[in-house]
Automatic annotation (TrEMBL):
GO biological process: DNA integration
An example Gene Ontology molecular-function term: nucleic acid binding
UniProt-recorded name of the protein: Transposase
Pfam families xrefs: HTH_21, rve, rve_2
NCBIfam families according to UniProt: transpos_IS3
Gene3D superfamilies xrefs: Ribonuclease H-like superfamily/Ribonuclease H (3.30.420.10)
Function noted in UniProt: Involved in the transposition of the insertion sequence.
Length: 264
């Protein structure tokens, strides 16, 4: 019959399926996008839609985003500042780019970046647990110095002796007497990136790119207190709600909980 009627066999066997309401999908896309700081693109929105019971292609999501004027913050060009001169310490790179860790707090990486507050540069320092990419400590301040790093250390909850290795780049903020003494007290080993090699601290660098795109570029800060308050709120969202591709599209806290359940 298909041959006589000159139609394809696939047309005969086609089974119509009820399509999800365009209004429902559009509303869900808008809600997911707005609830996640305008940071999610089609890939992560697809994951979140699936959790809500919608099976939608990235192409369709992209079309809806274009129609609704939803532009991810990742489409904005990023400015890359020049690095300050590094120290000449003979300390080796003990981490050796082993960014996949199986124990919480075993290896912590750190970095800092600049943020403009009322036309003046301020700085943010973060500590990231390689186990689940969680920001376990941070500090803000008007100066890029050792005390900024020390305050980030003091913000970490729990026993600092759980940390076995602390890896950073060769900025003088990380390699100085104050930080040396802190590491010695808590018996934490040190690791430094090779000179002029940002790839040795890739996770910290990538985390700050996320922060610059999703947080810094989206806001204006009136004071250091304003920056600290807003960044604290962002870190809470980053750790508890933001899904991460490297973690199988779950949040850092959810990843830690599921890992503990598997161990038990």
């Amino acid at each position: 019959m298909c041959s006589v009627l000159q139609i394809s066999r696939s047309t005969y066997y086609y089974e119509a399926k009820e399509r999800q309401s365009e209004d429902d999908v559009t509303g869900a896309v808008i809600e997911i996008f707005e609830q996640n700081r305008s940071a999610y693109g089609t890939r992560k929105i697809k994951v979140e839609l699936y959790k809500l019971g919608f099976t939608v292609s990235r192409r369709r999501i992209g079309r809806i985003m274009k129609e609704q004027g939803l532009v991810s913050s990742y489409t904005v060009a990023q400015f890359k500042p020049q690095k300050t001169p590094c120290n000449e310490s003979v300390q080796a790179n003990e981490l050796k780019r082993e960014f996949q860790q199986t124990e919480a707090k075993k290896v912590v990486v750190s970095d800092l970046t600049y943020v403009k507050v009322k036309n003046k540069w301020h700085y943010v320092c973060i500590f990231v647990d390689l186990f689940n990419r969680e920001i376990i400590g941070f500090s803000t301040g008007p100066k890029k110095d050792a005390s900024l790093v020390a305050r980030a250390f003091s913000s970490i909850q729990g026993d600092l002796r759980d940390i076995q290795l602390f890896h950073t780049d060769r900025g003088s903020e990380f390699k100085n007497q104050l930080i040396d003494e802190t590491l010695a007290v808590f018996q934490i080993d040190r690791s430094l990136s090779m000179k002029g090699c940002p790839y040795d601290n890739a996770v910290a660098e990538a985390t700050f790119k996320i922060i610059k795109t999703e947080f810094v570029s989206q806001m204006k800060f009136d004071s250091l207190e304003h920056l600290t308050l807003e960044f604290s709120d962002y870190v809470n969202w980053f750790n508890k709600l933001r899904i991460h591709g490297t973690l199988g599209y779950v949040s850092p806290i959810e990843y830690k909980r599921s890992s503990l359940k598997r161990v038990v």
